[in-house]
Specification:
Number of helices: 34
Helix content: 55-70%
Structural class: mainly alpha
Number of strands: 9
Shape: globular
């Protein structure tokens, strides 16, 4: 199987030169092998995988509560919940939620099944040595045919596992594409997988395989092929590719294909700045709105992170002048990409657009702020987004919730009290029986982004040194296309980066050692796990309130224009009463009424308990935190981290963030090494004994 990076060529060279190696040459060969692994990114992938598996702190109760509070028959929220699980477990290899809910999962049919299978790839992102083993249940087997949806989803999953590090899997995926028997679903998955694994390789052969699929003019397969051609040629500015793709976009009748190709062309211009202007000009003037839409994304990719003024002016102009809502929405969204290195500017730039009469423009401005300010917890961003979660239009509320979660990802209640309110908001929207399904969809995914990757990752489109992270920018741009095609949401996993501090010795192993963070433990700690008992009471109350007040609610709605606010209040029941009392908020009176309607007393007791707990914590809490290697260090925390005095290891450079090389000051003593625990890191046997991942599902009853 195509395991290991570019294994074939290395092997040939080694065997040819084997007999004549001196010891010195052997040592050098090892050094070069190590360097190759470091430069190819393989070393860091393995280390990050270990970190995410070992430190996984997903709160399963949040997931089960989401699952429990949704209607069984709604396929949209079902899909969102399957996806939420994958986001919360991205890169951790933990799939307990799937194995525990097999029956529930089997409700996914057709493209939902495709999407659910691809989710397995998100959870195993980075298992580049065992990907075929991880996905073997679902991959196309010679002579056996399971559902094309799970086979296509599995090929897409392989791409997600190998995103941007695909040398070991490209051949497998190319063969799968050729042997797809022209099944559009399998082709769709294989194209997306190839695009991800062959990202930015500029590989002509791959490009031509994909072009064959594009020219067969099948809408579903062609959309993925157009996108994948762009991914393979990412940032190459290939004249030939752009000309072929543009000509085909004018020829085909399929909107899906035009959209795939339009985005593909935008990707080809990644990072090209002025070099992309000719194409941007051409696309922006096209009479087809889908190509103009592609033109906006070409500005986003070509000028991402530059803060370029003429790019911003152009996007703002289109945002208020284009006749197509889609193009206007894209133009505003793309401002977020251009401003990603100066996030503090973004809320100001879109503040007027956020009040536009056009809901598409308002939605675009939520995403722009979410993208530019991702992971910053910027107060201005939260202030702009919060009122938009109460917008009259469902998809604007969806965008506002997604953006809020991107901005506040990994922030803690202790540092930012808003986090608690936002969590409460998502929960109440998910529980609200009368809430629109679009907004619920947003709330479910937003809730999972706050806790993404086992609570150990953040979204960052730039590196710690301020350089652009190519795969993250591309992942975010394609994630935004979930609007048209939900399975593209999985590209979100490319934007996640582990927030870690991992020390390595000269053998690239993790020695046992501690770092010190000069902050109180609670400041950057994981959010506390949800407790079962506190949940039980309010849920019952919620139902009681909803059933008894449905009529009054309807009456209130006609009486008041602010019907929405009321609706939210009734639903937010006790949860918010707690938060508000602590803040001494203005809604006290209304909240008390709703609390008295049911279970007010219980809330009060819990409140006292919590306050008492906090007092105790404040008295005893030390002013430093000890972090053991591999440690979780949040972005805002890194400036407080030091190596304690008298430590056996000292870092080679003074940056304490990400992967750090350590110098051993007592090389003769025996070193204690951190055991590697990830089962999926080696093609392990453990995989086989685990309960099988969700079977290729066959569904008997009518779906829905």
């Amino acid at each position: 199987g195509g395991e290991g990076g570019g294994g074939d060529t290395d092997m040939k060279e080694a065997s040819a030169a084997a007999p004549v190696l001196t010891d010195e040459e052997k040592r050098q060969a090892q050094v070069f092998a190590k360097l190759r692994q470091i430069l190819s990114g393989e070393t860091s992938i393995g280390i990050h995988l270990e970190f995410l598996y070992r430190n996984n702190k997903t709160d399963m109760l949040i997931l089960n509560n989401i699952k429990g509070s949704l209607e069984v028959r709604n396929s949209v929220t079902h899909q969102a919940t399957v996806f939420a699980n994958a986001v919360m477990h991205t890169g951790t290899t933990v799939d307990t939620f799937i194995t525990e809910n097999l029956e529930w999962l089997k409700r996914a049919t057709n493209w939902a099944k495709f999407s659910a299978t691809a989710c397995v790839g998100m959870m195993h992102k980075g298992c580049i040595n065992s990907s075929l083993n991880v996905m073997k249940e679902y991959l196309p087997q010679p002579g056996m045919h399971s559902s094309p949806y799970s086979e296509g989803g599995a090929l897409y999953a392989l791409g997600l596992i190998h995103a941007h590090h695909g040398s070991g899997i490209l051949r497998y995926l190319s063969n799968a594409l050729r042997n797809s028997g022209n099944n559009e679903t399998i082709q769709h998955g294989a194209c997306l997988g190839l695009g991800l694994a062959g990202m930015a390789t500029g590989n002509e052969e791959l490009y031509e395989d994909l072009r064959v699929v594009l020219f067969s003019d099948n809408a579903v397969a062609g959309e993925a092929a157009g996108l994948a051609m762009g991914l393979v040629m990412l940032g190459t500015a290939s004249e030939k590719a752009v000309q072929e793709m543009l000509a085909y976009a004018h020829e085909t009748q399929h909107e899906k294909i035009i959209r795939g190709v339009a985005l593909g062309m935008a990707l080809i211009m990644y990072g090209r700045e002025e070099g992309a202007d000719t194409l941007i000009e051409q696309l922006s003037r096209d009479k087809d709105p889908i190509l103009r839409y592609g033109g906006m994304y070409a500005i986003a990719t070509a000028y991402s992170g530059t803060g370029n003024n003429s790019a911003i002016r152009r996007l703002l102009h289109v945002a208020v002048s284009d006749v197509s809502d889609d193009v206007r929405r894209a133009a505003v969204t793309c401002l977020g990409f251009v401003l990603t290195t100066i996030p503090e500017q973004c809320p100001r730039v879109v503040s007027l657009l956020a009040e536009s009469y056009n809901p598409h423009v308002r939605y675009g401005s939520t995403l722009a702020v979410g993208i530019a300010c991702a992971g910053t917890s910027l107060q201005e961003a939260v202030d702009l987004l919060e009122p938009m979660t109460k917008d009259a239009v469902d998809f604007v509320r969806q965008g506002a919730m997604l953006a809020l979660s991107m901005v506040l990802i990994q922030d803690t209640e202790v540092r930012n009290p808003k986090v608690k309110e936002v969590r409460g908001l998502f929960e109440s929207v998910i529980r609200d029986k009368h809430e629109d399904v679009m907004a619920k969809f947003g709330a479910i995914i937003a809730a999972s982004i706050l806790d993404a990757g086992g609570r150990n990752v953040t979204i960052s489109l730039t590196t710690k040194a301020g350089h652009k992270r190519m795969s993250a920018i591309v992942g975010m741009a394609i994630f935004c296309q979930y609007w048209y095609w939900f399975p593209l949401a999985h590209f979100l996993s490319l934007t996640f980066t582990p927030t870690c501090l991992i020390g390595l010795n000269k053998d690239l192993k993790m020695p046992q050692m501690d770092f010190t963070s000069n902050t109180r433990p609670s400041l950057f700690d994981y959010p506390p796990m949800t407790e079962v008992k506190t949940k039980a009471a309010p849920t019952k109350v919620a139902q009681a309130i909803l059933s008894t007040t449905a009529k009054t609610q309807a009456r209130k709605k006609t009486e008041k224009k602010e019907g929405e606010v009321d609706k939210m209040e009734v639903v937010k029941e006790g949860e918010e009463a707690k938060a508000e009392e602590k803040k001494g908020g203005g809604k006290d009176e209304e909240m008390k009424d709703s609390a008295q309607e049911g279970g007010g007393k219980k809330e009060g007791e819990e409140d006292k308990k919590e306050e008492a707990g906090e007092d105790k914590r404040d008295k005893k809490e030390p002013n430093f935190t000890t972090l053991s290697n591999p440690a979780r260090v949040l972005t805002a925390q890194k400036k407080h981290v030091v190596v304690p005095a008298g430590c056996r290891y000292e870092p080679v450079s003074n940056k304490l963030w990400g992967v750090v090389m350590l110098k051993d000051l007592r090389p003769d003593d025996e070193a204690q090494i951190v055991e590697v625990t990830v089962p999926a890191n080696a093609p392990a046997e453990k995989e086989a004994d685990e309960p099988p991942p969700p079977e290729p599902f066959e569904y008997t009853e009518a779906a829905e």
